[in-house]
């Protein structure tokens, strides 16, 4: 298939590129600058431009940002929309997080409907943030759950703003398909905290993606006095997330569905204890006593839909943490 992948410079998108190429698809990714596009192409030296190329989309928060990018010859058959800000450096929650998430999502859908009628499936990277009810956890989370966050709560803290950005964007996507009845259908991938090897271009570990930052901090000795408290208690490997995107694009039965993709429970203490066991050279950068317990009333999770429809077999946390640390050492930790 010929596929448009938005946010090509991202941590998850880089793995999507790898899986898409491995599955024989032709990929055009969007980036904000030529510099980023060229660096990604350099990572795939030897891949012909008919298989991998890029287009510039400077700011997904602008109306019409994707109108040119979706037009292609030969035309696109599918779109993976991963681009969305994931960070907590927020001065204006609306401008920094909510607008790019929501306008970016509705923008790609409008552009596909208008200018790319050959696209049959759009896969959107949503999040567990669009599922979780932080103040009222159900016994078991699944695709049936929605974050009840309101606009008033969204602008209270950066973490609320991020969770709301993913919730409002995903809701807007389902509403668009419901109302507009476009030529394509939709699938969403809803991962919790994503760990895994860094294969995207990084100038330095200071620019690490948000979800791998705690692992970087642990090996740099920034958690020596105390392991930071965990927030989400669920994780997934980036390679499993990328495969889920591609399978959701390829599998007819995935249309019209959300996919809650998770490898299971975790805590920062469990991650730190894996680092200490796998990399004894970092033991003195971590506290002597690490609490690896999970809360007694921890919520459960049901990831069966992703296993049954997409065929995902989740990696183990030990393998993911080991591979993540190795990749960070290669960048220069
Ligand atoms: P990254 O920060 O590595 O990637 C984000 C991507 O979005 C980058 O390519 C970035 O471009 C692009 N982007 C952000 N804002 C804009 C904008 N205004 N205009 C154009 N491009 C923009 O994060 P991840 O790879 O982790 O995240 C990818 C997706 O996965 C996001 O939708 C995120 O919400 C979702 N997600 C991530 C999880 C995780 O734990 N990592 C968990 C659940 C969901 P640039 O590089 O130029 O800034």
TrEMBL record:
Residues 3-256 form the NAD-dependent epimerase/dehydratase domain. InterPro entries: Epimerase_deHydtase, NAD(P)-bd_dom_sf, NAD(P)_dehydrat-like. Keywords: Oxidoreductase. One of its GO terms (molecular function) is oxidoreductase activity, acting on the CH-OH group of donors, NAD or NADP as acceptor. The keyword Oxidoreductase applies. The keyword Oxidoreductase applies. CDD domains: AR_SDR_e. Belongs to the NAD(P)-dependent epimerase/dehydratase family. Dihydroflavonol-4-reductase subfamily. This is Dihydroflavonol-4-reductase. It comes from Capronia coronata CBS 617.96.
């Amino acid at each position: 298939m010929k596929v448009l992948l938005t946010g090509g410079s991202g941590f998850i998108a880089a793995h999507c590129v790898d899986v898409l190429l491995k599955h024989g698809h032709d990929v055009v990714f969007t980036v904000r600058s030529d510099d980023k596009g060229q660096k990604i192409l350099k990572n795939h030296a030897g891949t012909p431009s008919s298989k991998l190329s890029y287009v510039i989309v400077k700011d997904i928060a602008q109306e019409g940002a994707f109108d040119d990018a979706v037009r292609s010859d030969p035309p696109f058959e599918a779109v993976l929309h991963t681009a969305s800000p994931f960070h907590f450096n927020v001065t204006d929650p609306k401008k920094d997080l909510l607008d790019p998430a929501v306008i970016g999502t509705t923008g790609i859908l409008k552009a596909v409907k208008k200018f790319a009628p050959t696209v049959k499936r759009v896969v959107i990277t949503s999040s567990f943030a669009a599922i979780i009810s932080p103040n009222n956890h159900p016994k078991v989370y699944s695709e049936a759950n929605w974050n009840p966050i309101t606009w008033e709560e969204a602008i209270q803290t950066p973490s609320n703003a991020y969770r709301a950005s993913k919730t409002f964007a995903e809701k807007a996507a389902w509403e668009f398909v419901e109302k507009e009845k476009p030529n394509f259908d939709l699938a969403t991938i809803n991962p919790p905290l994503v760990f895994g090897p860094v294969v995207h271009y990084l100038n330095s570990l200071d620019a690490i993606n948000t979800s791998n930052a705690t692992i970087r901090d642990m090996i740099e000795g920034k958690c020596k006095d105390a392991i930071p408290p965990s927030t989400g208690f669920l994780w997934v490997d980036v390679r499993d997330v990328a495969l889920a995107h591609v399978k959701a694009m390829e599998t007819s039965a995935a249309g019209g569905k959300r996919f809650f993709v998770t490898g299971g429970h975790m805590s920062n203490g469990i991650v730190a204890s894996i680092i200490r066991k796998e990399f004894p050279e970092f033991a003195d950068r971590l506290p002597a006593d690490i609490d690896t317990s999970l809360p007694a009333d921890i919520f459960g999770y049901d990831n069966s839909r992703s296993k049954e429809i997409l065929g995902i077999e989740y990696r183990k946390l030990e393998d993911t943490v080991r591979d993540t640390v190795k990749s960070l050492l290669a960048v220069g930790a």
